[in-house]
Amino acid sequence: MDLWFTEYYTKNARFSIKIDKHIISLESEFQRIDVFDSYGFGRILALDGYLMLTEKDEFIYHEMMTHIPMAVNPNIHDVLVVGAGDGGVIRELTKYNYINKIDMVEIDKLVVDVCRKYLAQTACKLDDLRVHIYYEDGLKFVRSKYNEYDLIIVDSTDPFGPGEDLFTKEFYGNCYKALKTEGILINQHESPYYPNDALAMQKAHKKIKSVFPKALVYQAHIPTYPSGHWLFGFASKGLDPIGDLNTGWKTLGIKTRYYNTDLHKGCFALPNYVKELLKNA
Amino acid sequence: MDLWFTEYYTKNARFSIKIDKHIISLESEFQRIDVFDSYGFGRILALDGYLMLTEKDEFIYHEMMTHIPMAVNPNIHDVLVVGAGDGGVIRELTKYNYINKIDMVEIDKLVVDVCRKYLAQTACKLDDLRVHIYYEDGLKFVRSKYNEYDLIIVDSTDPFGPGEDLFTKEFYGNCYKALKTEGILINQHESPYYPNDALAMQKAHKKIKSVFPKALVYQAHIPTYPSGHWLFGFASKGLDPIGDLNTGWKTLGIKTRYYNTDLHKGCFALPNYVKELLKNA
Amino acid sequence: MDLWFTEYYTKNARFSIKIDKHIISLESEFQRIDVFDSYGFGRILALDGYLMLTEKDEFIYHEMMTHIPMAVNPNIHDVLVVGAGDGGVIRELTKYNYINKIDMVEIDKLVVDVCRKYLAQTACKLDDLRVHIYYEDGLKFVRSKYNEYDLIIVDSTDPFGPGEDLFTKEFYGNCYKALKTEGILINQHESPYYPNDALAMQKAHKKIKSVFPKALVYQAHIPTYPSGHWLFGFASKGLDPIGDLNTGWKTLGIKTRYYNTDLHKGCFALPNYVKELLKNA
Amino acid sequence: MDLWFTEYYTKNARFSIKIDKHIISLESEFQRIDVFDSYGFGRILALDGYLMLTEKDEFIYHEMMTHIPMAVNPNIHDVLVVGAGDGGVIRELTKYNYINKIDMVEIDKLVVDVCRKYLAQTACKLDDLRVHIYYEDGLKFVRSKYNEYDLIIVDSTDPFGPGEDLFTKEFYGNCYKALKTEGILINQHESPYYPNDALAMQKAHKKIKSVFPKALVYQAHIPTYPSGHWLFGFASKGLDPIGDLNTGWKTLGIKTRYYNTDLHKGCFALPNYVKELLKNA
């Protein structure tokens, strides 16, 4: 059977994955949620028709969001995760037994329910005792937090629809307040290649830079995201992702398939054209 | 009008670009050659239906093939380029005024003719006086060369069809002989993500490693190549791409849009899963 | 979301329908069964990836299979339907209150179960008391029947896979024996336009002609079948579809959306190129 | 190579043809003109991205526009063809040696030039001495004509863009005046299946009916037009397409691949749902 899921990167470029079965399709209060069985990419989650993850390469995104900050500050005990209903970031975080608390704020409970049921690969650690899930608006949740977290990971959708608030200056400001002195903010930072993504990347960077004294961008190869060139933001009150890299991270024995500490240093080295875009943000 | 050029990455994944016009389509002795005007990616060159380059992102591939070795050894004067009929590597090489000679061996004259006429963006320096074009089989050409080149760049198509010979152990052995003591071999090295590409990458790496004392792999983000995660091989008789990086490269004033010396160091830091594949090659 | 079901008419022509949801996907002993919710065509049934019906235009196929023979012989009381698990032909037959018995032989019970649950539009009359469903091989079922039916309707899939037997000379011969003197055999007869379909049409016609004294072909516009030009076979022991058309059919008050008695006469008038193909079968 | 031309029938249904080469692409004063070499359909002409004809099935359209009226009135000597720049209708008309004059009004000279050069299959008779080509607006041309033609064939594009005027009541009124007493107007009449086409069909029929005492619609199977179910209008000052069918047509010895006089009678027998749409126009 010839059934394809297609994502338009622009109106002139599209990527398509062959589908075996459409496992479930639901309309939540916030968005449409679809899970597919694909050929070659395992299960796939799409929100409002945008591909969120494939089982084949979600490890790249989730490892790069999690281990980069964890390897910079070895004293991260209290973590807030915003979005991330699929559980992938949580799964990576739970590999650190010295983390005490993981608050997860996901606006859409149905995403979590669907992932628990159909995406065990990512959702497998949502029941870890350290995890507290709040089905709330991320922006509102963070507003009331002061000096509470060592790490905030913003695993949002794109800056339109339900994820829009998580790209505002107000939100970044609230994250700053919610972080302790050695706090780190990580966010998915769109992509530099296609014009619309590049614009979103520039806007996000400009806002974060205006709030955090340190605001860098790092990259990873995520083949099923637009252009395969995806960016993340690393912002902190002072910690430097490379200068402060904890060389002891390797001794923790954490298994990763993408991340390693050499790549940690390498991934902050951006192409000139990306640096240019960020400078002109 | 709705006209799309599609490349199947596997039989279950495909990437499509919207086409405005099909500029030319020719059948040479070796392959079918097509040039398109696309929307959003400028002109596109396809050989035997495989996308070779788009004007939008060819700079990434060509810069990464050229400036990595040039920044390691500041005494590169004699260069051999195998394949590369589009001229992109030549364009980058001609930025170095201390290069004396660039031999280019391209089996298919028609590719060069088509690129001269329709792809000036890459072919613009093919008439540089240092460039000598040989329309011959690359494998045979290199066989008769001893201790002649400081750098060989193998800008081949994939390891089937006309490019097949350029992925053989015999060819790599001949390259070794053709290189001087400080010689470097660069080759396009396929991709680690999709199974078939990963296999080709492993095979190439295994062969190069058996010939060259130093054989590393580096990566770049090339959005219009399968998975966007593309690899290159750096092999040498001794020079190390990072240990021997010439910090003076920046003073040459060479303009690049992707390459820079930080990224030079970063691009050799590979993801664990890629390292694993190479180790098991 | 961009999800499309595509059917390749040949390897160079394809028709695609945008899908909202994949309602169910099952693998029976005989074939893969899929039901989709489409945009613009209502529910869709596919067997082994081939589109069997859409709610938007199944009335055309089912009316043309049923009312053509019913309007020729007003004394049809005993009917055999082979295949037709979706129930569309049954629905049309049950509009005739003077039909006494409808035997339906469908090899794949799962098709019937799925249609009962998800395709009420066609399956709505499967519980009519006159309907007797046999989950058996059509070829075997007919073998043991003599002089039993006034009408046999062969609503098969294409002549490969589970439907293959229903395109054999043996099967047509058995149908002949199973029919009474005034009996009529109707079968879906593929299409004259695309080469493979045309070949199947020719083969079927040749075989039927060798068994039945009267073997004609008629056509209908079915937009979601390959080429939109679909054919049906009308074979009998003597009755002529036009000469014997019962002008009283209109007085039965049967509601149809495609069929009428003018079109009845018109649909046997085939294009020259189709007549040529049939003559050369 | 994987290059496909796609036509969207609605936003939820599309038909695609595999392309070998894009022969030419030009922008005239009126529209974009593209010719392709396809696989399986021969050459293809597209105007503004809409498929106008394929060499594989253009005979159906052109025969049905031409021989239907020619077989009704054996005294057609003066013909006006509006649109039809590809020459297909002209080719069919020139098969009648008793036609004296064929005026052809095509607004876009470039279409004719392109077809002469790249579509000899249809354009082959444009130089017949009886043919007079006027590169003018069809609506204006007809305005000044009184009692001059026995037959007007309107071979227009769809009722938007350059073809828009040829679907107005004013145009039909002018055609009426331009026709002699036994005159016939034939026009391409869109399709009943997809909602937008059906609406266009209804609008055209309503207007023609308000101008001509006799206004019927007939159908043909044209696989590469939306739905494959295409309609034509037959309007006259009194001649009836079936009642006045000239049984002597066969003796003319005109070779056709689709048309024949049985099909002539059959093609006016429309499905109930089409009749309904026309009645409610």
TrEMBL record, chains A, B, C, D:
Kindly state a single biological-process term from the GO annotations of this entry: spermidine biosynthetic process
Main enzyme class? transferase
NCBIfam families, per the entry: PRK00811.1 (NF002010), speE (TIGR00417)
State its role. Catalyzes the irreversible transfer of a propylamine group from the amino donor S-adenosylmethioninamine (decarboxy-AdoMet) to putrescine (1,4-diaminobutane) to yield spermidine.
Protein name in the entry:
Polyamine aminopropyltransferase
Q: Which gene encodes it?
A: speE
Keyword annotations of the record: Polyamine biosynthesis, Spermidine biosynthesis, Transferase
| A molecular-function term among this protein's GO annotations | spermidine synthase activity
